[in-house]
Structure to design on (208 residues):
């Protein structure tokens, strides 16, 4: 298991968002096609569909390259990721994709996302890293 | 393939693979396996339980953040 550690780190990082994605899509397709919720899913889905799994994988590679050798805990690394990802999602949804998240909702999300990302990275991504022989 | 050929092949194989000596493990390794399994089990510190409780409370207080949180996963 000593070969291609970066590829394995990328795969370990991608697992969780890739697993969540189909449920997310099914939920929104049901909402849009059956319950006719007026959500522009085509624009809405680009961020979680295309970017989030790639960024999770890339962030885990960054952990392997820079954070782990310096002893930074994986949970803290994940929380830092949310600090970068949330403004990006807010900007992309507003400026690039043509719909806006309410700012008060964004503020409420911040502590939830920080804690959630800390726990998800510490336990889930940490588990996948151990399974793939990275920790 | 005849009996003589098989016998020759058997002799060659025996010559190529010498008999294994001291194949037994010198001590009982099962306790070490159990210790390793126990060490691998995730220990959750109290701080993380507290964070999980705060997270659950925040989600109950602001359920509208659930889809937005999913948007970031």
């Amino acid at each position: 298991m000593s070969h291609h550690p970066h590829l394995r780190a990328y795969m370990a990082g991608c697992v969780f968002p890739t697993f969540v994605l189909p449920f997310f899509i099914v939920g929104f397709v049901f909402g849009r096609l059956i319950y006719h919720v007026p959500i522009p899913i085509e624009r809405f889905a680009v961020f979680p569909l295309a970017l989030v799994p790639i960024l999770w994988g890339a962030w885990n590679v960054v952990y392997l390259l820079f954070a782990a050798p310096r002893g930074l805990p994986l949970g803290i690394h994940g929380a830092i990721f949310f600090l970068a990802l949330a403004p990006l999602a807010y900007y992309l949804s507003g400026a690039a994709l043509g719909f806006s998240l309410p700012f008060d909702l964004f503020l409420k999300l911040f502590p939830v996302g920080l804690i959630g990302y800390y726990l998800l990275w510490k336990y889930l991504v940490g588990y996948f890293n151990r399974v793939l022989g990275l920790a | 393939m005849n009996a003589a050929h098989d016998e020759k092949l058997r002799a060659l194989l025996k010559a190529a693979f010498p008999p294994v000596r001291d194949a037994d493990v010198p001590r009982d390794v099962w306790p070490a396996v159990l210790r390793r399994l126990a060490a691998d089990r995730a220990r959750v510190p109290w701080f993380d339980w507290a964070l999980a409780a705060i997270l659950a409370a925040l989600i109950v207080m602001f359920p509208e953040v659930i889809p937005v949180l999913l948007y970031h996963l």
Observations:
- Residues 9 and 61 of chain A are 5 Å apart (CA to CA).
- The mean pLDDT of chain A is 83.
